[in-house]
Design brief:
Belongs to the KDELC family. Residues 1-27 form the signal peptide. It catalyses: L-seryl-[EGF-like domain protein] + UDP-alpha-D-xylose = 3-O-(beta-D-xylosyl)-L-seryl-[EGF-like domain protein] + UDP + H(+); L-seryl-[EGF-like domain protein] + UDP-alpha-D-glucose = 3-O-(beta-D-glucosyl)-L-seryl-[EGF-like domain protein] + UDP + H(+). The chain is of the alpha/beta class. The protein has three domains: 39-143, Immunoglobulin-like; 164-282 and 456-486, no CATH class; 295-398 and 406-452, Rossmann fold, CATH 3.40.50.2000. The protein contains twelve helices and 21 strands. A five-stranded parallel beta sheet has the order 16-15-17-18-20. The chain has a four-stranded antiparallel beta sheet with strand order 1-2-5-4, with no helix packed on it. Strands 3, 6, 7 and 8 form a four-stranded antiparallel beta sheet that branches. Helix 5 packs across helix 6 (276-283). The radius of gyration is 25 Å and the shape is flat. The structure holds 2-acetamido-2-deoxy-beta-D-glucopyranose (NAG) (3 copies). One 2-acetamido-2-deoxy-beta-D-glucopyranose binds at residues 266, 397-399, 419.
Length: 507
């Protein structure tokens, strides 16, 4: 049968024209979900989990309670959110089909509501425990209404007891001295680096910058302001490195200064935070950022068997190994499709590295089964998004790390590749020869991202880090000369009335 004829037949079938002639033709493989057995859960069903974009999950299940493993259709579930006492609700809702039988529902609120009723509907029928009632006040992201008790906030957020990376980073300090640091750190790093000195006092944020290139402080300001709107932070004083490279190279036997950085390395002792990229994507989810940990889950390309078994990479020339990777790809095009979208750091030699290729949408990466994660200037900040997809990540061994690498396990969440890429071809071949195992690792990596790298986890990490760090302070944090107040953005359009009592300082 010719392809054209086949597609005509498929079209007719989908129009239902052959339904009488071919009663069994409608594939039975996609079972239909049952309203009673479908599962709904997640932080977005709880009033006290305030996030820039709230979210919850829907797992479709059939009438016998079996989970569906393929999509029953993008429009299967309808979600409505209403605040009964309000005339209008300004809430933007998206139902994201994860194509594995589950859905991610996210919503961004532009005002605070007394009570919210969440309706999750399947053909106009309520699903599972729907409607879900959030007893208010249900605060929106912009509402400056901190929970006075940090431990209560952590309990509401279901934060983990501890983060191994925080424990490790702070273990080298028996104490930190804000008075001494305020003198010494600017002397050591203030001239050549891009540094911010922050003080949080009475839950207000103050800052002084050092160096010329301090534009990236907007990310740090934003997360601090967002946190102080949600929970009362301890008084503290700390330095943030806005540059790519971690700074503190001293050995544990020397005097080490605490510097907060977005990337850590085996040779430095900086305290790592979630990267500015991941932080911004959390704060701007359903805002001006289009790639975030939720949108990526709805754009993971074809299912595993339909993915192209060539390993894929796109990026710019920010490291020697990236040049090696592209050369390797040109020598083995059937194994690796790696190409540069930009040349910036090295001289572009087209005979060695080929022409620049057009930028590829990140979501299109997932047309490929194997994703190569290779360092750039420092760690490649795309790893959270790569893990959240349903491809297998081949991760280069690296001296650089982000805040969550400590909890990732080679062969469980990703396939490790030597730092010099010497075994990359071999590892791709392994994955091709062990398809079931490769798929299992891909899904474990995805599960890791779903469990550890969503917005609630990022807020928990920052809070825990600040809390643990603050406990180490041996002198009182102060608002230093030259510091300015970082103001909350004014939200005149949607002011919030905070019902929480403002407690006096617990001294
Ligand atoms: C169905 O999916 C939910 C959510 O992922 C999971 O917790 C549950 O164990 C699954 N049930 C079965 C029977 O596999
Ligand atoms: C898989 O991807 C490679 C590299 O992008 C391409 O050359 C090849 O044609 C693709 N294979 C299929 C079956 O689409
Ligand atoms: C960095 O340290 C980690 C953890 O100890 C180790 O697994 C890794 O091989 C090191 N990588 C490099 C390139 O130094």
């Amino acid at each position: 049968m010719s392809l054209r004829l086949l597609s005509w037949l498929l079209l007719l079938l989908s129009l239902g024209l052959f339904r009488h002639e071919l009663p069994g033709a409608r594939a039975d493989s996609v079972t239909s979900p049952s309203a009673a057995k479908t599962l709904v859960w997640g932080p977005g069903l709880e009033a006290n989990v305030v996030l820039p974009a709230r979210f919850f999950y829907v797992q479709a299940a059939d009438s016998s309670g079996r989970n569906l493993t393929t999509s029953p259709g993008e429009k299967t579930f309808e979600v409505k959110i209403v605040a009964p006492v309000e005339e209008f609700t300004r809430i933007w809702i998206q139902v994201l089909d994860r194509h594995d039988g589950s859905f991610l529902v996210r919503y961004r609120m532009y005002a605070t509501y007394t009570d919210l009723h969440l309706h999750v509907l399947l053909k106009s029928k309520h699903v599972a425990g729907s409607p879900f009632v959030l007893k208010g006040p249900v605060y929106h992201e912009g509402c400056d209404c901190p929970q006075p008790s940090g431990s209560e906030w952590e309990a509401h957020m279901h934060c983990p007891q501890s983060f191994p990376q925080i424990d490790r980073d702070l273990a080298i300090y028996s104490g930190v001295d804000p008075d001494a640091n305020a003198q010494e750190i600017p002397q050591r790093f203030g001239q050549r680096q891009s540094l911010c000195h922050y003080t949080v006092k009475d839950n207000r944020v103050y800052v002084k910058t050092f160096g010329e290139h301090v534009g990236f402080r907007i990310f740090m300001d934003a997360i601090l302001l967002s946190l102080t709107r949600k929970v009362r932070l301890p008084d503290m004083e700390f330095f943030v490195n806005l540059g790519d490279w971690p700074l503190e190279k001293r050995k544990p036997t020397e005097k080490i200064h605490p510097i907060f950085s977005w990337c850590g390395s085996n040779n430095t002792r900086d305290i790592v935070m979630p990267t500015y990229d991941l932080t911004e994507s959390v704060l701007e989810t359903m805002g001006r950022v289009s790639l975030d940990m939720m949108s990526v889950q709805a754009n993971t390309g074809p299912p595993w068997p339909g993915k192209n078994a060539t390993a894929f990479w796109r990026g710019r020339d920010s490291r020697q190994e990236r040049l090696e990777l592209v050369k390797l790809s040109r020598a083995h095009p059937a194994m690796i499709d790696a190409a540069f979208t930009n040349f910036f750091f090295f001289k572009h030699d087209e005979s060695l590295y080929g022409p620049l290729v057009k930028h590829v949408s990140f979501f299109d990466f997932f047309k490929y089964k194997y994703q190569i994660n290779i360092d750039g200037t420092v760690a490649a900040y795309r790893l959270p998004y790569l893990l959240a997809g349903d491809s297998l990540v081949l991760k280069q061994d690296s001296g650089y790390y982000e805040h969550f690498y400590n909890e990732l396990r080679p062969w469980e969440h990703y396939v490790p590749v030597r730092a010099d890429l010497g075994d990359l071809l071999e590892k791709i071949q392994w994955a091709r020869d062990h398809d079931e195992e490769a798929k299992k690792i891909a899904l474990a990596g995805q599960q890791f991202a779903r469990n550890h790298l969503m917005g609630n986890s990022i807020f928990c990490y920052y809070y825990k880090l600040f809390q643990e760090y603050a406990k180490l302070q041996v002198t009182e944090p102060k608002i230093r000369d030259g510091m300015e107040l970082v103001e909350q953005p004014s939200d005149d359009l949607f002011p919030c009335s905070c019902h929480r009592t403002r407690v006096k300082d617990e001294l």
